[in-house]
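Deliverable D2.4 — example input (structure tokens):
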């Protein structure tokens, strides 16, 4: 009789297995949702800041153009005035000069034990005490009990055949006849009980086999569903990661563009500080440039914040993606072990399991010297 293999480490319950699967799915969906929100906010921020920056640049350029026109107009006016002054000065000089003159049971037990051993090879959260494990364990216990009961009947039969010996028959003929008749009657009853017990035990074995196979098929179906769900979550997460990486590149490109715009605005402000005299005034251009600088600094800060959030979300999705890949590997391994268990159990339905298996014969001698053979386990 085969012994059960040594049990591996900590087993997880079916509820823990289901909880782990739900947690993986929920976390993947949550991370994709957060990523989608961040991407939408990032796109909205990019569009808003692009419009704002374009408007600010256009408004500043318009103000600069107006200011240049004003300065040019006044420059022309001053030049004309200066020319007139020069002319007047020259005329005055001439005038003075003129004045002066200058980004089966054995096979079933072997099969059931092998199935338990195969399923003990599962790892992590896949190593669960599920209905399949319980049915297999019950099956092994039932087969061992069947073997024990059958052995008890065999032991009774063996003991019954050895109550009557030739020596006792010679010494106590009449007593032996009575004992023999009683033994034959008891032997017949034992044979009937044995046949009935075998039929009942066979029914129990068949019922348990069907229950175990149903549990195996059901568990295999649940594991396939969990694997398919996890593969779907992995695919969606990979798609979301690709979208997020694209948006991160866009945010980075916008950040580089806004930084360049900020440098331009700073350069304009710095250049305008070199205006001479009364031209160094706080005009509309000055206020527009200051507002543009403040707006660009706020925009850059918002873009940096959103870029950081997007990168953090992408990192979390990558970590969870790695965890889901590891769990998928364990699920595929568990499915392979379950399939091997189901293939192993096909031996229970083979013709060899229903045929009579060879048994050991115990030689005995009856009172007339004839040889008897007793079936033994």
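Example output (designed residues):
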């Amino acid at each position: 009789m085969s012994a059960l293999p040594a049990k591996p480490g900590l087993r997880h319950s079916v509820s823990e297995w289901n909880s782990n699967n739900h947690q993986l799915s929920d976390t993947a969906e949550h991370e994709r949702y957060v990523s989608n929100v961040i991407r939408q906010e990032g796109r909205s921020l990019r569009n808003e800041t692009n419009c704002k920056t374009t408007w600010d640049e256009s408004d500043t350029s318009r103000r600069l153009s107006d200011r240049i026109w004003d300065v040019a107009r006044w420059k022309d006016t001053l030049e004309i005035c200066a020319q007139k002054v020069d002319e007047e000065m020259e005329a005055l000089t001439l005038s003075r000069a003129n004045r002066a003159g200058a980004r089966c049971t054995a096979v079933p037990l072997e099969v059931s034990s092998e199935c338990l051993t195969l399923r003990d090879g599962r790892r992590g959260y896949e190593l669960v005490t599920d209905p399949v494990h319980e049915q297999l364990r019950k099956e092994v216990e039932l087969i061992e009990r069947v073997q024990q009961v059958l052995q008890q009947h065999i032991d009774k039969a063996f003991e019954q055949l050895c109550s009557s010996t030739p020596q006792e028959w010679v010494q106590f003929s009449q007593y032996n006849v009575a004992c023999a008749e009683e033994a034959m009657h008891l032997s017949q009853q034992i044979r009937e009980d044995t046949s009935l017990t075998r039929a009942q035990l066979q029914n129990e074995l068949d019922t348990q086999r069907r229950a175990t196979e149903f549990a195996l098929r059901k568990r295999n179906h649940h594991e396939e569903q969990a694997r398919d769900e996890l593969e779907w979550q992995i695919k969606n997460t990979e798609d979301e990661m690709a979208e997020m990486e694209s948006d991160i590149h866009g945010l980075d490109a916008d950040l580089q563009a806004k930084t360049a715009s900020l440098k331009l605005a700073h350069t304009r402000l710095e250049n305008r500080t070199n205006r001479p005299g009364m031209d160094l005034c706080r005009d509309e251009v000055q206020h527009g440039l200051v507002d543009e600088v403040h707006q660009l600094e706020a925009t850059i800060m918002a873009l940096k914040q959103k870029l950081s959030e997007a990168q953090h979300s992408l990192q979390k999705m990558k970590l969870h993606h790695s965890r889901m890949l590891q769990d998928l590997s364990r699920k595929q391994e568990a499915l392979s072990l379950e399939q091997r268990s189901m293939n192993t159990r096909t031996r229970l339905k083979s013709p060899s399991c229903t045929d009579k298996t060879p048994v050991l014969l115990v030689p005995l001698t009856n009172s007339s010297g004839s040889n008897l053979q007793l079936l033994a386990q």
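The radius of gyration is 49 Å.
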